[in-house]
Amino acid sequence: MREAGSASRRRPPWSAGFGALYFLDDDSYMDEAFALAERGRGGTHPNPLVGAVLVRDGEVVGRGWHLAPGEPHAEAMALTQAGERARGATLFCTLEPCTHHGKTPPCADALIAGGVARAVVALRDPNPQVDGRGFEALRQGGVAVQLAGEEWAARARVQNAAFLKFQRTGLPLVTYKAAMTLDGKVAAAGGDARWISCLDSRRAVHELRGQVDAVMVGAGTVRRDDPELTVRLTDGRDPVRVVVTHGGELPAGAKLLATARHTPTIVIAAEASASARRLLEARGAELIEVGPAGLRGALEALAGRGLLDILCEGGPTLAGGLLAEGLIDRVLLFVAPLFVGRGAPDLFAAPAVDAVASAWRLHDVEWRAVCDDLLLSGKLRTEEG
Questions:
Q1: pTM value?
Q2: What per-residue string of b and e applies to 259-286 under the rule 16 or more CB within 10 Å gives b?
Q3: Is 75 a catalytic residue?
């Protein structure tokens, strides 16, 4: 994100845009549109996050954001709020308005009918049902269309990274999160992992759970830690819980199964045993069998259910498998000032490389302090990868 006032250092008070002049005041309206879009974080899947601001004669007359599938889109919400004041107004929107009938009518048609004169948009929507058709429809309807520039496009790609990856690859965005010691362990030798990270780090994880579509763990984590994988240390809605197993077997008393009818729970297996099927059905958990498709097939199945933003919380076997197959996009590591010694579980149970040059390397690395921990974030895959 740019520093305050940096726009004036990069461009004059106005600059030529696509189909209209771009004024510096436009930056503040676009910034507000992005902030509005974030209000839908965690609830819009499989739809993207979108924010919209309508401005007429220097006054904001309408604001909108997409909250959930079936709910009004950001542009429609802003038009409803603006009413007749939308005529002659400029739309600032984070993503290209849609042109197709889904659970809601096309936004491009509504903008034209509402008399909007100009549209400043951060990013073209790669969804094949849109992909430039929204811009063309607006132009045909007499609306001047303008892309806001690469800075805003880059911000839009970050904000909707999960949606954009799915449109590119058919796979969800996968973030691997772990708490680890300074000697690279995720638990003590006896399996105890409570608590490696400090309270503020754990609270940050609960906040993240409330923002993603699903949290995924391996069966070993369920057997060892019996986690709930819900949001408890902060406000927020619970994600879908996903457990990856070999044959679908989980402990009958697992907390995940005890609460499966209240909080959606998916168990993924290559091929489940009859006893596992009976137990999961009795507890209200969904079973997905992926056969030889393995982890990639598991992720494809989740994406097919609209779960596009996945937080993997371990354990080492699942994380190692995802790493080895190139299925992790991002890494979040809470590094605690602890040593637990030899024999404790490693961060990744993945085959070792023969040379440092062949190692998995993080990009766009950032470090920040969280109480006594250090939070490391980085990307294993770029947005284009």
A1: 0.87
A2: bbeebbbbbbbbebeeebeebbeebebe
A3: yes
Q: How far apart are CA 287 and CA 132, in angstroms?
A: 38
Lowest mean pLDDT among 11-20, 202-211, 335-344: 11-20
Structure token pair of residue 128: 């094949």
Which one from 38, 59, 75, 300 is the annotated catalytic residue? 75
Distance CA 261, CA 201 (A): 29
Contact 162, 309 (CB under 8 A): yes
Which are the contacts of 204, defined by CB distance < 8 A and separation ≥ 6?
334, 370, 375
Type of residue numbered 164: L
Span of 24-28, 136-140, 326-330 with lowest mean pLDDT: 24-28
DSSP H or E run through 266? strand 265-269
Phi-psi region of 91 (alpha: psi -120 to 50; beta: other; left: phi over 0): beta
What DSSP element (H or E) covers 331? Answer: strand 330-335
- Give whichever of 94-103, 110-119, 228-237 has the largest mean pLDDT: 110-119
In three-state secondary structure terms, 123 is: coil
Q: Please, what sign has the CA dihedral across residues 190, 192, 198, 204?
A: positive
Give the tokens for residue 54.
């309508």
61 DSSP assignment: E
